[in-house]
Design brief:
82% helix; single chain; globular; mainly alpha; 8 helices; 0% strand
């Protein structure tokens, strides 16, 4: 795909701005209602899968589609086995064709996120957001969002002295973690371009 040098230069900033705005809207919904509307997370996820296909990573996009379809299988053990087989196949393919650590880690992350949802440890919106972050921004953005977001969530939890059984909306910490990741990764290139 041919992009002009100007578009190539501003594209990362445009993507960062769109992702940050989307995450802020999702976080606001999550804070107010403890729910993020399905279209607000599903449409970006579908767009992320299509972008992944457009980048030529059909196998990873296919894994996301297959794993989401497997989630509807009523027998949990069968869904789990199929998800592991699908991920294993993609892992082996990635190992022999792409061979990058990021590619392998992304494959494992997709399965880990799906398992977290599959066993009821996170809501569908949280996982849709994290898979979208993984597909658009990469594995390290997701790891940063989870680590920084987790630290933010713990700090909020301690400050508010919440009961451990009470759910803490996690989209706000994820948004903070992802936006910090974007700032840390984009500001140096922006400053470097100005100086």
């Amino acid at each position: 795909m041919f992009l002009s040098p100007f578009i190539k230069e501003i594209l990362p900033y445009a993507i960062a701005a769109i992702m940050a705005a989307w995450l802020i809207v999702c976080a606001i919904y999550d804070q107010k209602t403890q729910e993020v509307p399905t279209p607000l997370t599903l449409i970006p996820l579908i767009a992320a899968v299509l972008i992944t296909i457009a980048k030529g990573n059909y196998v990873l996009a296919g894994l996301v589609i297959v794993i989401y379809l497997i989630g509807d299988i009523s027998k949990k053990w069968m869904g789990l086995i199929l998800a592991i087989i699908a991920t294993g196949a993609v892992f082996v393919w990635t190992l022999f064709h792409a061979g990058t650590f990021d590619g392998l880690a992304t494959t494992v992350m997709i399965l880990a996120l799906w398992l977290y949802w599959y066993f009821g440890k996170a809501g569908g919106a949280d996982i849709n957001i994290l898979v979208t972050i993984t597909l658009i921004l990469g594995i390290w953005a997701t790891v940063s969002a989870i680590l920084i977001g987790g630290l933010v969530a713990i700090a909020i939890w301690k400050a508010l002295k919440k009961d451990k059984k009470e759910a803490l909306p996690f989209v706000m910490p994820l948004a903070i973690g992802t936006i910090l990741y974007l700032v840390i990764n984009l500001i140096p290139s922006l400053v470097g371009g100005i100086i």
